[in-house]
Amino acid sequence: MDYGLIGEKLGHSASKEIHEMLADYTYELHPLTREQFTPFMEQKNFRAINVTIPYKQEVIPYLACIDDTAKEIGAVNTIVNRKGKLYGYNTDMPGFIYMVRKNKIEMKEKKVVILGNGGASQAVQAGVKHMKASEIVVVGNRTIKKGVITYDECFDKHSDADIIVNTSPVGMFPNIDASPVDLKHFPKCQAVVDIIANPLTTKLTAKARELGMIGITGLEMLVAQAKYAAEIFLDEKIPESKIDEIYQRLARN
Ligand code: ATR
């Protein structure tokens, strides 16, 4: 494989379609079991890859070098093989920032509640920090680590949140009737960002729009992170306008 995506389950991934609209290479979906993962990383038989769940942290020991964003987040989604040495990057955070800015959501000086504390949440937390939110609250589910609070505690103490970001899988296809929170808990909320890419409107963002808030979902972030990854793969710039062009095309279908 020259270019592609590794992860445990890739059945639903739109990445092949997106990358092949961005660049001239063939992009393969390459699912790996845990047993297959180690030899794959040792053999380095690829030019450049993207990495998804559950290997974004597990690839790090195989890298010769990791960029500052990936270091900050503690996860790598893009790897380039340069003369047998592996270089790691994270384009999830810039992808998230692109989507927030494109939709004119201002995070500066805002109180932002982030639902979920998995890998995707780490990239979102770094992005929200980068956009200078005044307060960031992270809400967990079963695993409540230091600095993470429960949903009940959040409703109790942070009902004044300005922006909600969902990084949990609640509401993702095929469970489209589920929503991670009832927005009635957040009367001051102005915008809801759901990083779920499928469906295009989640139950949460539909409700947000009904209440007069901005409500956006993650397909734009998915396309943006792919564009930034393709630029690293090829070491060349791709016009920013490509993101919207591809997003619009996918959204229509
Ligand atoms: P990723 O690594 O891609 O971010 P994840 O780890 O599967 O995805 O889930 C992200 C977050 O969503 C986690 O905080 C997870 O909480 P727990 O691992 O503590 O349970 C949360 N999450 C997963 N399923 C959930 C559910 N049904 N309700 C609420 N939160 C959920």
Task: Describe this structure as you would to a colleague.
The protein has 253 residues and is α/β, with parallel strands linked by helices. It has 9 helices and 12 strands. It has helices spanning 15-22, 34-43, 68-73, 92-102, 119-130, 151-157, 203-210, 219-234, 241-252, and strands spanning 3-7, 27-31, 48-51, 65-66, 78-82, 85-89, 111-115, 135-139, 148-149, 163-166, 191-194, 214-217. The strands form 2 sheets. It has a 6-stranded mixed β-sheet with strand order 2-1-3-5-6-4. Helix 8 (219-234) packs across helix 9 (241-252). The model has no long low-confidence stretch (mean pLDDT 97). 2'-monophosphoadenosine-5'-diphosphate binds next to helix 5.
Ordered list of secondary-structure elements with their pairings:
Elements: E1 3-7, H1 15-22, E2 27-31, H2 34-43, E3 48-51, E4 65-66, H3 68-73, E5 78-82, E6 85-89, H4 92-102, E7 111-115, H5 119-130, E8 135-139, E9 148-149, H6 151-157, E10 163-166, E11 191-194, H7 203-210, E12 214-217, H8 219-234, H9 241-252
Parallel strand pairs: 1-2, 1-3, 4-6, 7-8, 7-10, 8-9, 10-11, 11-12
Antiparallel strand pairs: 3-5, 5-6
The structure holds 2'-monophosphoadenosine-5'-diphosphate.
Give me the count of strands: 12
Strand order of the largest sheet: 2-1-3-5-6-4
Shape: globular
Mean pLDDT: 97
Low-confidence stretches: none
Rg from C-alpha positions? 18 Å
Structural class: alpha/beta
Strand portion: 15-25%
The H/E string reads EHEHEEHEEHEHEEHEEHEHH
Distance between the termini: 28 Å
